[in-house]
Amino acid sequence: MIVHLTGKLFHKSPTYAVIEVGGLGYDVKISLHTFSAIKTLETCQLFTHQYIKGDVHTLYGFASMEEKNWFLHLINVNSVGPRTAMTILSSLSPLELGQTIINNQV
Hints:
Layout lengths: L3 E9 L3 E6 L2 E6 L2 H7 L4 E11 L2 E7 L2 H11 L6 H10 L2 H9 L4
Parallel strand pairs: 3-5
Antiparallel strand pairs: 1-2, 1-4, 2-3, 4-5
């Protein structure tokens, strides 16, 4: 399991980043929240979750452990997969998500 990556940002866009670590480029899916945190950086550390379904392996990256933990909570909810979780995390910061849940806001 890949827990985090630290390296040069080879490419970054609002939905994914390519991080070069030891000569290898890792394609990491990211939220808009994480993109905002790394968009001006040349190097960074992302906390990651490797999602495996069938023969598809996808790496999701987060600027903070808090965001990663929310992702893990969200994908454990019925009918919420990784893409839906990333959409939620792109719409709300981890703090806003927590407040929304605590206040029972739909």
